[in-house]
Amino acid sequence: MKRFKYADERISERDIMIAIPSIVIGVGILSMPKQLASVTIGADGWIPLLIVGLFAVFMSWAIAKFASGFEGQTFLTYASKIVTKPVAIVLSFMFAILSVFITAYQIRKISNISQQYLFDRTPIEVIALAFLLVVVYAVSGSRAGLFRINMMFMPIIILIALTLVIFNLGWISIGNLMPVFQTPFTGYVQVVKNTGAISYLGFGILWFYLSLVDKPKKAPRAAALGMCVPVGLYMIIFIMSIGVFGNAVTANLLYPTIELAKVVEIPGGFFERFESVFFVIWIMAIFITATMAMDIGVIALNSIFKNTEKLKIIFILTPLIYLAGMIPQDVVEVDFLGAVMSWMIIILNITVLILLTVVAKIRGVKRNE
Amino acid sequence: MNKLYLILVCCLCLLLAGCWDEVNIEERGFVIGIAIDMAEKQSGGNPEITLTDQFVVPAGLGTPSEGGGHQSSQKPYTNLSLSGNSLFEISREMALIQGNAPFYEHLKLIVVSEELAREPNIFANSMDILLRDPEMRRETKVVISDQKAKDILEIKSPIESLPAMHVETVNENREKSGALIQPLRIGNLNQYMLEKNNYLIPRVVSVDGKMMLKGAGVFDGDTNQLVDVIGETDIVAINLITGDFKGGFIKFESNDGLMIYEIKRAKSNIKIDTDEKDNINIIIEIDTEGNIAETFGDRSLLNKEYLDKLDEEISQNVERKTVNIIKKAQEEVGLDFFGFSEIMQERHYKEWEKIKDNWDKGEKIFQHATIDVKVNSNVRTSGTTDQTKD
Amino acid sequence: MLGRSFYWDKTKKNEEENFSLEIGTNLTENLKNVKKMLEDPSDLVIREFNIGTANHRTAIVYIDGIVDSVYIHDHIMEDLKTASKLPDDKQKLFDVIRKEVITVTGIEMGHSLDDVSNAILSGNTVFYLDGVDQVLIMDTIGGESRAINEPQSESLIRGSKEGFVENIRTNTMLIRRYIADSNLRFSTYKVGRRSKKDLVVAYVDGIVNPDMIDEVKRRLETIDIDDAPESGYIEQWIEDSFLSPFPQILNTERPDKASEAMLQGKVVILLDRTPFVLIAPATFGSSLHSPEDYYWRWSLGTLIRMLRYLAAFISVFLPALYIALVSYHPGLIPSDLAFSIAASRDEVPFPPFVEALIMTITMELLREAGLRLPTAIGQTIGIVGGLVIGEAAVSAGIVSPVMVIVVALNAIASFALPSYSIAISFRILQFGLMGAAAVFGLYGIILSYIMINIHIVNLMSFGVPYSTPFAPSFLSDWKDLVLRAPIAMVKKRPVYMQPDDKKFMDKGDRKQ
């Protein structure tokens, strides 16, 4: 069937700009203020948040810059050229495995939180299954469709986050934000070790999606700009929750961002409990994160097993994701999984970036200009 | 196509198995207020607590279709009291008695008896489930009562059909009275308990069978124990000191008889000088603005000199009141419930770290601190008329 | 040129019946053949008469009822009778008659029996002259047809009161009157193996994207069906996904809506014998637009549009939200309302899902019943259903009063949508959402919402993504989406249609 040019499977740099915050903003933000507040004093947590954020912006730019040099080539293709095919396959495979774990982690996390805030007795397995099926439905559609979904959901997500911020402004007490700059240096190290990574993982998608971009030259800037959105949002949410709850309470609440929503009183009393509404809409954010992560896994595997149908890969991945998500027994184990996974992702991305750049230089692999 | 069928089949399976959490609205036991008392009978070991849930009986509220003025003969609420060690346990037991399991998402009020609040730890322990349970909201108000808390929930309100809602309604009058402290939300209580700051909890008393908010209880942030109770006149002073003043009035005796000064706006500025560790200097500047609301005298108020004189008298009056309560805090109660500690923590963090263990504990630096109050009151207008009699 | 020939096996029939498919020179034989082919139906009129000084035998053949008999009398019979100086040579006579005598405007030559039968069956009149193996086919299409009325399904307060009618000629005429552009194109097709209806694809050349036209034509050419009684058949044949609940082609009775769409670069498909014309492609945004949005000033237009999006939301989500809130999340309802809902549901024996199902199905029944009955009674049914059943159901304790409000609001919202086909889609979705809400509460609703969105972004209508211009987003198209910017500010035709001519106007400035 004939399509209009814009409706084909290619994406624009604007799609990349939206895809970055779409994958970054997920479950991390719900518990992020707690993890930061527990090791910093006052509202000092914004400093590591900003520093790590800037690093993430740089990483997104660097990856996009590197990948944009190989226009229209998939990760496997250009990685094979640089570091030989077997290594490239191993790298793709690692991306695929990690993507599966991100999806599994997001799904497990959403089920845990849903059970806490929306359900009581409904088993986590069922909540997770329902979510996973919707994710599978999305991934089995067209890839351009995923970017369109991002485009449709992102404004809603930003809007609900802003609503949360605006309705909480009245509850902020400036005193809670003080004192400033009192955190010892070790505290910041602690932050980076515990949390900095989880919140910003997601720039790895650039390795894979850039091959779909029409004008990859513009992509690095778009990717960096896109990464600024979560950095800004995280800082606002963090300062809000410290301002409203104070450091001590934030450090003790499991999901301070949702509790922020609990504080909101919509004028006119339309909704009694804003947190359910907030969380329900936030499911959309988590959904696009999970979907894109799974799609990366599918792309990576599809590039390795070229002759296998996409749907077949999805059907093999789905039970794996489900099982991976159901392995952790309790909240602590889920968080441990998250921490380990995010560190591995950061390390993998940095390694791949350095490895490919350096080897490409040494071996003089030409980029297609 | 195949994937579509797969999804359909899965959805059908879910439909067959689903509905774990479905509880129809009429089968929920809406709890609107709870009261926590010490149990009558104590059996050693862990202290026994009596929990009273006020369940809403929706039918008693009368549905709109039955006509506006129709008052149902049924009482719109039932109170159920049970005793036990754990609030959770009691709450689950209630499900067996009440039929509809208690549902706390509409909880508006928690009443704690002073008797319980004076016991060590029990108060903080009983707040745990109220903060931990996801059904609970952080907006629920906490008050203490001088008598049995469960009796407070029995007092009929003249305007509200549910006694627990009464406190909410009264709190809306803060702008008029000034003798009400900011209602304590359980979320804030959580903050105080975690930050170990002393705090005030509004107090409910029953006067002639009517519920009334009067005064506040002072809680020690360390032990979460009720230490003292302060009256409503002191509340005005505390509100003025903390700057959390929504409106109220000062009654004072001028040369020409009784006068009421209605405060429309008040601002406070607290400066703490922490240079000397042993002699901390706190300066409180209070600015008020308002008008003469009522006077028993017959002098013209539209006289610059006279107004200045009134300003002066009012300032002195306010100053006296605030100094009184500060003295009471330093000498009688021995606790800083004005939030000076928070200000120091926020603005003088390094110094605060050094003295925080000895502020109102240990060396009791607070008790020896020099606290000065400067009040600057202004009368802006005299109402709609100058003199009403000559 | 008159399309496909008869479908059935003519040679076989020919052998049995023994008649020739050629037009011979013998008039009697020819007329006999026509009769045989059509089995001499009662409405077949064969009028034989002689003309000229040489008394040449002639005949005209037509089918009564579908021709304009006055026209035949005035422009064929009269002319033939009163003609003088006719040549004697038969072939010459035939040419003179064709060129000089007959004053009918549409006139063609026919050479076979197929031509003859196709012509008379579609309302033409055929002229035979004895001794000539050719016939004249004259356009005398007429007969009874409905006058132009106000469109029943899409009436507006402000705007033209003309609606399309069953007659395709009238319809093309209406469009011509709206767009007097030399680039307006009508490509004609014949649809139906047996019915042979006229189908016209209308578009403005130079605006429409050529790819779009090619695609529409390609799909139309695949149609192979006995009969297409209504444009719904065409719609269902050429739409992209038959599984989708959403209409991928819009229909309208309003010529102003159709011509407006053509000026946006869309394609309009008209079918004979139905007042409903198709507009392709459709997008989600455009299915919530009504021509009246543009007729009122922009502020009102914008507010109406927003109201309509709200109506769309209500018509899909309201009963589901009711179920979710009442049976899963009563904490979300303001306390006082929660208590009064609890009180009103005290005597209702069913769970909210069943309650909602009963009421929505009742509503659908009322809607359907109201449609079947004459207008006057239809209104009565609405009142009886709405008031009496609602009231009685509440007092009998079958449903709660809040449920009645919910269902009524839901029905009103769905009637407020400008297009009946999108309203139907929402009604279908609403049931799915109710199910999801009954199983998972709000979680189910949001998952369903996400699924609907996935479906929409993957759906295409003639190569145009259904979700455009939301995503893929074209910011300049947002001026005329949820908002309706002042006319002078919308300078561009919709970018998502990729039109050849990009702009509606060169300057946005109004003439002072």
Automatic annotation (TrEMBL), chain A:
Family under the similarity heading: Belongs to the amino acid-polyamine-organocation (APC) superfamily. Spore germination protein (SGP) (TC 2.A.3.9) family.
One Pfam family in the UniProt entry: Spore_permease
UniProt feature coiled coil, ranges: none
Keyword Ubl conjugation: no
Record membrane topology: Multi-pass membrane protein
Localisation: Membrane
Keyword Transmembrane listed: yes
Residues spanning the membrane: 16-33, 45-67, 87-107, 127-146, 153-174, 194-212, 224-246, 277-299, 311-328, 340-360
Protein name: Germination protein GerLB
Keywords: Germination, Membrane, Transmembrane, Transmembrane helix, Transport
UniProtKB/TrEMBL annotation, chain B:
Record PROSITE patterns: PROKAR_LIPOPROTEIN
Protein name per its UniProtKB record: Germination protein GerLC
Keywords of the record: Germination, Lipoprotein, Membrane, Palmitate, Signal
First-listed, main subcellular location of the protein, grouped into a coarse class: membrane
Domain Spore germination GerAC-like C-terminal as annotated: residue spans: 214-383
Highest classification ranks of the organism: Bacteria, Bacillati, Bacillota, Bacilli, Bacillales
Organism: Oceanobacillus neutriphilus
Spore germination protein N-terminal domain location: 21-204
Keyword Signal appears in the UniProt entry: yes
Membrane topology: Lipid-anchor
Family matches, as Pfam families: Spore_GerAC, Spore_GerAC_N
Record family assignment: Belongs to the GerABKC lipoprotein family.
NCBIfam families membership: spore_ger_x_C
Lineage top rank: taxon: Bacteria
InterPro entries assigned: GerAC_N, Spore_GerAC-like, Spore_GerAC-like_C, Spore_GerAC_C_sf
Signal peptide, first to last residue: 1-21
Compartments where located: Membrane
